[in-house]
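For the sake of clarity, the format in which proteins appear in this thesis is described at this point. The fold follows as a row of integers, each naming the local backbone shape at the matching residue. One such record is shown here in full, so that the layout can be seen directly:
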Amino acid sequence: MKAMSMSSIWLRAHRSVADFIENRRGNSAVEFAVIVPIMLVMFFGTIEFSSGVAVDRKMSLVARTLSDVTSQSTVQPVTDSYIQNVFTASMSILYPYSPTPTTATVSQIYVDTTGKATIQWSMAATIASSVATQATLVASNRHPNDVVTSIVPPQLLVKQTYLIFSEASYLYTPAVGYVMKAAITLQDSAYSRPRQFTCLTYPTASAIPVITPPSTCPTP
């Protein structure tokens, strides 16, 4: 057997190392394993955040529509049926998103001669199920005579005037939950003034007996 010189052994070792370094057959697999998790985070994160932003914008529209349509009522006094229809129409804005995580409230506020704002009447509603065609009236967290001066913008605190105040809330749960792990509450509110009457009376509120607003506009 022919003996190998040290130089030959070093040359072969050098070539083996060089070949190993230049061998790129596994590069694609390594790059794929490194990049895919980052791409998944970006992909699902974009979907979850963009959907959340879309729902948030729709909640603003729901609040504005609820306040605006209620304030335009030509019905006096306001009835449960009318309010229910207003809630239903407002919540339909959420399509194609499910409206079931939505809770909306509409209230009338009176600002007295001292600038104090109090609730005159209030009603809330939800969508009971994904197949429901009408909103369901439920108890409101606002009650007659609740003082709400602190939540009314100062420029709207005009003495001896009325405001229609709407609130909309949506529990947004990401469909995938890859980036946003927990549900978040999206909400907005809006104000408008009665258009056809000085105020809107709501004397029945039969669905919620605890709400018994006055049958006429309070005197200044």
In short: The beta strands are 102-111, 117-126, 136-138, 161-172, 184-192.
